[in-house]
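Quick start: what a row looks like.
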Amino acid sequence: MHLRTRTAATLTLAASLMGLVGLASPVSASAEASDTAQGRYCTVVVERVKPGEKASRVKSRTCSDDRTAATRSSAGTLLMSWYQHAGFGGDVTHVYGDYGPCDSDGYLLDTGLSRYMISSFRTYNNCDGQQAVLNDGRTTFYYYGYATSYVGDRANDDIAYFKVFDA
């Protein structure tokens, strides 16, 4: 009986993770065709979490080696910037919300392609509360304010999701 319960839980977790992998991929066929998922500076536009979904749906993802081009292609309200290195250095991903600034519900962001390279972050537009869930799916860290220059040794390069909200 115990084995059956563990097997069911494992299969449920695997199915959930497989569904979330699809959220991290580009939505637009033209984005895939032009290989815009490559580059040091990325812009991601997300929706709010809808009923029945586990994370905010990615509407678009564009990347470039030109910082200005990546930022220029953005739409929506800037929510968060993820940095590859501590002290806000290295490659950066800017995340925009398609439904305005953070409120108490906020956004749940799948870090997708950046999940193994976030060492620092900044938040904007009322997103002063952040809950980071690590890649193990269990460990959670809370941050408050608008800038975290280092996420800490345990969370460094190991963040799978961020919930950002107006604390």
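That is the whole record. The first helix runs from residue 2 to 23. The domain at 2-165 is CATH 2.60.20.10 (Gamma-B Crystallin; domain 1).
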